[in-house]
Protein backbone atom coordinates (compact mmCIF):
# COMPACT_ATOMS: atom_id res chain seq x y z
CA UNK A 1 0.00 0.00 0.00
CA UNK A 2 1.30 3.48 -0.85
CA UNK A 3 2.52 4.96 2.40
CA UNK A 4 0.02 7.45 3.75
CA UNK A 5 -1.71 8.24 0.45
CA UNK A 6 -4.32 5.46 0.46
CA UNK A 7 -5.82 3.67 3.44
CA UNK A 8 -8.85 1.42 3.77
CA UNK A 9 -10.12 -1.03 6.34
CA UNK A 10 -12.24 -4.15 6.20
CA UNK A 11 -15.15 -2.17 7.66
CA UNK A 12 -15.43 -0.12 4.47
CA UNK A 13 -13.73 3.06 5.65
CA UNK A 14 -11.31 4.61 3.21
CA UNK A 15 -9.03 7.60 3.05
CA UNK A 16 -6.99 9.17 0.27
CA UNK A 17 -4.71 12.19 0.49
CA UNK A 18 -3.75 14.39 -2.44
CA UNK A 19 -2.59 17.97 -2.92
CA UNK A 20 -2.65 18.69 0.80
CA UNK A 21 -6.29 17.61 1.14
CA UNK A 22 -7.83 14.40 2.40
CA UNK A 23 -11.00 12.59 1.35
CA UNK A 24 -12.40 10.25 4.00
CA UNK A 25 -15.42 8.00 3.51
CA UNK A 26 -17.21 5.95 6.15
CA UNK A 27 -20.77 4.64 6.03
CA UNK A 28 -22.88 7.11 4.06
CA UNK A 29 -20.63 10.10 4.77
CA UNK A 30 -17.80 11.47 2.63
CA UNK A 31 -15.65 14.30 3.96
CA UNK A 32 -13.49 16.30 1.57
CA UNK A 33 -11.20 18.49 3.62
CA UNK A 34 -13.49 20.31 6.05
CA UNK A 35 -16.65 19.76 3.95
CA UNK A 36 -18.84 16.87 5.04
CA UNK A 37 -21.40 15.35 2.68
CA UNK A 38 -24.10 12.95 3.81
CA UNK A 39 -24.89 10.91 0.71
CA UNK A 40 -28.58 10.87 1.61
CA UNK A 41 -28.60 14.67 1.17
CA UNK A 42 -26.32 15.02 -1.86
CA UNK A 43 -28.21 16.33 -4.93
CA UNK A 44 -25.40 16.42 -7.51
CA UNK A 45 -22.55 14.01 -8.18
CA UNK A 46 -19.76 13.77 -10.73
CA UNK A 47 -16.97 11.32 -11.18
CA UNK A 48 -14.40 10.52 -13.83
CA UNK A 49 -11.39 8.25 -14.23
CA UNK A 50 -8.60 8.33 -16.79
CA UNK A 51 -6.24 5.37 -16.75
CA UNK A 52 -3.15 4.96 -18.89
CA UNK A 53 -0.49 2.28 -18.86
CA UNK A 54 1.61 3.58 -15.95
CA UNK A 55 -0.50 6.43 -14.53
CA UNK A 56 -4.11 7.11 -13.63
CA UNK A 57 -6.14 10.09 -12.46
CA UNK A 58 -9.46 10.18 -10.68
CA UNK A 59 -11.94 12.91 -9.79
CA UNK A 60 -15.04 12.89 -7.57
CA UNK A 61 -17.47 15.76 -7.10
CA UNK A 62 -20.27 16.04 -4.55
CA UNK A 63 -22.78 18.84 -4.02
CA UNK A 64 -25.64 19.55 -1.69
CA UNK A 65 -27.50 22.78 -2.28
CA UNK A 66 -24.98 25.60 -2.56
CA UNK A 67 -22.14 23.53 -1.11
CA UNK A 68 -20.08 21.68 -3.69
CA UNK A 69 -16.59 20.26 -3.82
CA UNK A 70 -14.39 18.23 -6.15
CA UNK A 71 -11.48 16.03 -5.17
CA UNK A 72 -8.89 14.60 -7.51
CA UNK A 73 -6.00 12.24 -7.07
CA UNK A 74 -3.36 10.69 -9.30
CA UNK A 75 -1.67 7.32 -9.16
CA UNK A 76 1.88 6.70 -10.30
CA UNK A 77 3.57 3.33 -10.84
CA UNK A 78 3.46 1.40 -7.57
CA UNK A 79 0.19 3.07 -6.54
CA UNK A 80 -2.09 1.87 -9.32
CA UNK A 81 -3.62 -1.12 -7.49
CA UNK A 82 -4.34 0.86 -4.31
CA UNK A 83 -5.75 3.77 -6.31
CA UNK A 84 -7.97 1.48 -8.40
CA UNK A 85 -9.36 -0.24 -5.27
CA UNK A 86 -9.94 3.10 -3.53
CA UNK A 87 -11.73 4.41 -6.64
CA UNK A 88 -13.86 1.27 -7.00
CA UNK A 89 -15.06 1.56 -3.41
CA UNK A 90 -15.78 5.28 -3.72
CA UNK A 91 -17.83 4.84 -6.88
CA UNK A 92 -19.75 1.89 -5.39
CA UNK A 93 -20.57 4.00 -2.34
CA UNK A 94 -21.83 6.95 -4.39
CA UNK A 95 -23.69 4.69 -6.83
CA UNK A 96 -25.50 2.83 -4.04
CA UNK A 97 -26.12 5.63 -1.53
CA UNK A 98 -26.77 8.68 -3.72
CA UNK A 99 -27.36 8.00 -7.42
CA UNK A 100 -30.64 5.99 -7.23
CA UNK A 101 -32.30 8.68 -5.09
CA UNK A 102 -31.02 11.53 -7.26
CA UNK A 103 -32.24 9.74 -10.40
CA UNK A 104 -35.67 9.10 -8.91
CA UNK A 105 -36.00 12.75 -7.81
CA UNK A 106 -34.97 13.98 -11.27
CA UNK A 107 -37.37 11.62 -13.02
CA UNK A 108 -40.23 12.82 -10.81
CA UNK A 109 -39.36 16.45 -11.60
CA UNK A 110 -39.25 15.69 -15.34
CA UNK A 111 -42.61 13.88 -15.21
CA UNK A 112 -44.11 16.84 -13.32
CA UNK A 113 -43.10 19.22 -16.13
CA UNK A 114 -39.67 20.33 -14.97
CA UNK A 115 -36.31 20.22 -16.74
CA UNK A 116 -33.26 18.31 -15.52
CA UNK A 117 -29.71 19.09 -16.59
CA UNK A 118 -26.92 16.55 -17.04
CA UNK A 119 -23.33 17.60 -17.66
CA UNK A 120 -22.18 21.14 -18.28
CA UNK A 121 -19.26 22.86 -16.59
CA UNK A 122 -16.99 22.52 -19.60
CA UNK A 123 -18.76 19.39 -20.84
CA UNK A 124 -21.61 19.27 -23.39
CA UNK A 125 -24.93 19.48 -21.58
CA UNK A 126 -27.97 17.26 -22.06
CA UNK A 127 -31.32 18.60 -20.88
CA UNK A 128 -34.32 16.37 -20.19
CA UNK A 129 -37.99 17.24 -19.88
CA UNK A 130 -41.27 15.39 -20.27
CA UNK A 131 -40.92 15.51 -24.06
CA UNK A 132 -37.46 13.96 -24.27
CA UNK A 133 -33.76 14.85 -24.38
CA UNK A 134 -32.03 17.81 -26.00
CA UNK A 135 -28.32 18.00 -26.76
CA UNK A 136 -25.89 20.86 -26.24
CA UNK A 137 -26.16 22.62 -29.59
CA UNK A 138 -28.26 25.79 -29.52
CA UNK A 139 -30.63 24.62 -32.25
CA UNK A 140 -30.40 20.92 -31.37
CA UNK A 141 -33.61 19.05 -31.94
CA UNK A 142 -35.25 17.17 -29.14
CA UNK A 143 -35.06 13.37 -29.04
CA UNK A 144 -38.49 12.16 -27.83
CA UNK A 145 -38.51 9.49 -25.11
CA UNK A 146 -40.16 7.09 -27.56
CA UNK A 147 -36.96 7.12 -29.68
CA UNK A 148 -34.57 6.60 -26.77
CA UNK A 149 -33.42 2.99 -26.44
CA UNK A 150 -31.08 3.35 -23.48
CA UNK A 151 -27.99 5.01 -22.06
CA UNK A 152 -24.64 3.81 -20.76
CA UNK A 153 -21.27 4.92 -19.37
CA UNK A 154 -18.14 4.03 -21.34
CA UNK A 155 -14.61 5.38 -21.71
CA UNK A 156 -15.35 8.58 -19.81
CA UNK A 157 -18.54 9.30 -21.74
CA UNK A 158 -22.26 9.13 -21.07
CA UNK A 159 -23.96 7.86 -24.22
CA UNK A 160 -27.64 7.90 -25.20
CA UNK A 161 -28.68 5.38 -27.83
CA UNK A 162 -31.45 6.03 -30.35
CA UNK A 163 -31.00 3.16 -32.80
CA UNK A 164 -28.12 4.23 -35.01
CA UNK A 165 -24.55 2.87 -35.09
CA UNK A 166 -23.38 5.91 -33.09
CA UNK A 167 -24.91 7.33 -29.91
CA UNK A 168 -27.59 9.94 -30.48
CA UNK A 169 -26.28 12.15 -27.65
CA UNK A 170 -22.96 12.16 -25.78
CA UNK A 171 -21.53 14.08 -22.85
CA UNK A 172 -18.54 13.63 -20.55
CA UNK A 173 -18.88 11.87 -17.21
CA UNK A 174 -17.20 14.74 -15.35
CA UNK A 175 -20.20 17.13 -15.59
CA UNK A 176 -22.65 17.35 -12.69
CA UNK A 177 -25.16 14.46 -12.63
CA UNK A 178 -24.02 13.19 -16.03
CA UNK A 179 -23.37 9.77 -14.48
CA UNK A 180 -26.98 9.71 -13.25
CA UNK A 181 -28.41 10.06 -16.77
CA UNK A 182 -28.50 6.30 -17.57
CA UNK A 183 -30.65 5.70 -14.48
CA UNK A 184 -33.02 8.54 -15.40
CA UNK A 185 -33.23 7.31 -18.99
CA UNK A 186 -34.11 3.84 -17.70
CA UNK A 187 -36.94 5.24 -15.57
CA UNK A 188 -38.31 7.50 -18.30
CA UNK A 189 -38.11 4.88 -21.07
CA UNK A 190 -40.06 2.44 -18.85
CA UNK A 191 -42.68 5.09 -18.17
CA UNK A 192 -42.93 5.86 -21.88
CA UNK A 193 -43.53 2.18 -22.68
CA UNK A 194 -46.15 1.90 -19.94
CA UNK A 195 -48.01 5.08 -20.91
CA UNK A 196 -51.59 4.49 -22.16
CA UNK A 197 -50.83 5.76 -25.67
CA UNK A 198 -48.27 3.00 -26.22
CA UNK A 199 -50.52 0.00 -25.52
Overview of the structural elements:
The chain is of the alpha+beta class and 199 residues long. The chain has helices at 80-97, 99-111, 181-194, and strands at residues 6-8, 14-18, 21-26, 29-32, 35-38, 44-51, 56-64, 67-75, 116-119, 125-129, 132-134, 142-144, 150-154, 157-161, 169-172. A five-stranded antiparallel sheet has the order 1-2-3-4-5, covered by helices on one side. Strands 9-10-11-12 form a four-stranded antiparallel sheet. A hairpin with a 2-residue loop joins strand 2 and strand 3. It is globular, with a radius of gyration of 18 Å. The protein starts with 5 loop residues before the first strand and ends in a 5-residue tail after the last helix. The model has no long low-confidence stretch (mean pLDDT 90).
Number of helices, counting only DSSP H or I runs of 4 residues or more: 3
Would you count the extended β strands for me?
A: 15
Strand order across the biggest sheet?
1-2-3-4-5
Distance between the termini: 57 Å
Give the integer mean of the pLDDT values.
Answer: 90
Q: Tell me the structural class.
A: alpha+beta
Q: How much helicity do the residues have?
A: 10-25%
Please trace the helix and strand order, writing H or E for each element.
EEEEEEEEHHEEEEEEEH
Largest sheet: 5 strands, antiparallel
Low-confidence parts, pLDDT < 50 over ≥5 residues?
none
Rg, nearest Å: 18 Å
Question: What is the beta-strand fraction?
Answer: 35-45%
| Outline | globular
